[in-house]
Design a protein that fits this description.
homodimer; 10 strands; 28% helix; five-stranded parallel beta sheet; 7 helices; five-stranded mixed beta sheet; alpha/beta
Chain lengths: 232, 232
């Protein structure tokens, strides 16, 4: 019997926002893997810090934090080889995923390498989208709104066109692209409807109408532009 | 002291996919409200059937199930009046919301009417998006993909254009619009990447590659078209 690969969404940050299933799986895990930056702590690991049992085996998948470069696939290939060994020995491997495993997550790279060889379970999680809307106290979209989710990393003209054509938007991965996003939303007359949220659901959560937002944004921040009918 | 209005996302269907916070709030509720169709059961209420304490006061907000007509705002105004009375008497009112409260939900109509008068809490939930991707065992989007969420109710040409221009898509509220959606995806050459999921996370969950999907789709079903880099 091989072990099971379990991709677990751990939600946006507050451990209270793990699902009941995720909470149970993490508390009973014997082997956990998670993405980690080359310096500093793993966000996914931090979220479940109070839940992980003592004596658990931990496997950080160290991915250099370069915001605009795609981390080398070799990292995931090496991680998949290491996790294969644990799975082959019959150990279940719990992979902690920020938010939801299949929503812009790096879990897909392990999934693509391992899902055909091992039993695999995916536990969906609360994405940052819902947490940001809740933090902003602002419904995202209503009725037949089109909601477009765009990474702020897109080229300016592309981003401008996407935002001009949609009813509602969520703009992710702001970081150093924040000034560009603000410029575009100003140009399009959307700034007065836009909300900025950083670190949604965490104690350091910050919420601002976009026009009153600070000049710089961390990576874990988002701007939402609610649909006209959803705007309160 | 007035009561607190609490909008609780109860996730896509499996009660195991409530968040830890939602589970706790529902189990200790004394007053719950939820949307309900004019015939049949409330889906949000069904999800938490095993969690609701005995003796809880229940308030179904009956909204006629007309798929293409927006339910009259008078229904929500009347519900808000009734819930105000409970809130004014100091009772917390838990409103059960399918998926996430601020993601295409009707909770916004109560929120818009009550949030300025009463303390309000929003508990984000797992949306159908993550549950559908998990069910299909298919990552939705990667890296700098643009993800467009479109209701199938849009006019055909509008829907076609949205789907032609995006990297990844989720098409919701299929119902009787399913043939139109299939036609468009066929025309755009996207059908071979598309997955169809009905009743994600529930025992009756159905998952098909779009080309092998049944001819008719229920309201609680979705088609996802993953981004090219996410497609496994």
């Amino acid at each position: 019997m091989t072990g099971c690969l379990i991709g677990v969404g751990v939600g946006p940050g507050d451990p209270d926002l793990l699902t009941v299933r995720a909470d149970r799986i993490v508390r009973s895990a014997s082997f956990v893997a998670y993405p980690a930056p080359d310096t500093g702590q793993s966000f996914a690991r931090q979220i479940v810090d109070g839940l992980i049992p003592t004596g658990v085996r931990e496997y950080p998948i160290v991915v250099p934090m370069r915001t605009d470069r795609f981390p080398a696939q070799e990292i995931y290939s090496a991680a998949a080889r290491d996790l294969s060994a644990a799975l082959e020995s019959g150990t279940d491997v719990v992979v902690l995923c920020e938010g939801d495993p299949f929503f812009y997550g790096s879990f897909m790279y392990l999934f693509a390498r391992l899902a055909e060889r091992f039993p695999t379970e995916i536990v969906p999680g609360v994405s940052s989208l819902g947490a940001v809307a809740a933090a902003a106290r602002q419904p995202l979209c209503a009725r037949s709104d089109v909601l477009t989710i765009v990474p702020a990393t897109l080229p300016e003209e592309d981003l401008r066109q996407r935002l001009a054509e949609t009813d509602a938007a969520a703009i992710m991965k702001l970081g150093r692209h924040f000034p560009k996003v603000r410029r575009i939303l100003d140009d399009l007359g959307l700034s007065d409807r836009a909300q900025y949220v950083a670190h949604a659901s965490l104690p350091q959560q910050a919420v601002h109408a976009l026009q009153g937002a600070p000049a710089t944004a961390p990576y874990f921040s988002m701007v939402i532009v609610p649909g006209v009918d959803a705007f309160v």
